[in-house]
Design goal:
Elements (H helix, E strand, L loop, with lengths): L2 E5 L2 E4 L4 E8 L6 E8 L6 E7 L5 E3 L7 E6 L4 E6 L8 E9 L4 E4 L3 E6 L1
Parallel strand pairs: 2-11
Antiparallel strand pairs: 1-3, 3-8, 4-5, 4-9, 5-6, 7-8, 9-10, 9-11
């Protein structure tokens, strides 16, 4: 059974940094894409970025490009979201997810709260 567990959320001031972790287990992720999503109160869940497990290549939406970095540690089966220059509009519950072998995202973590104060 695939399990994804996020951690590292918290309260930070605008301009600060935070690193989220997503511990993955249950299968090999060598053919997977790992994604980060977020959901703010009253808004739909939105895509933040993703990383291809095998290559380490990452993609980000424009709103976070240059501020957020996604990496992975294959030995630990862990994906990270490094968030710098945080803004209040980054406040949301952040989720990691995985898409296996070209399929849609179908496994999700429980989420971790990130709050950025002005």
């Amino acid at each position: 059974q695939v399990q994804l567990v996020e951690s590292g959320g918290g309260l930070v001031q605008a301009g600060g940094s935070l690193r989220l972790s997503c511990a993955a287990s249950g299968r090999s992720f060598s053919t997977s894409i790992m994604g980060w999503f977020r959901q703010a109160p009253g808004k739909e869940r939105e895509f933040v970025g993703q990383i291809t497990w095998s290559s380490g290549n990452a993609y980000y939406v424009d709103s976070v490009k240059g501020r957020f970095t996604i990496t992975r540690d294959a030995a630990k089966n862990t994906v990270y979201l490094q968030m710098n220059s945080l803004k209040p509009e980054d406040t949301a519950v952040y989720y990691c997810a995985t898409a296996y072998a070209g399929r849609a995202y179908d496994r999700w973590g429980q989420g971790t709260q990130v709050t950025v104060s002005a």
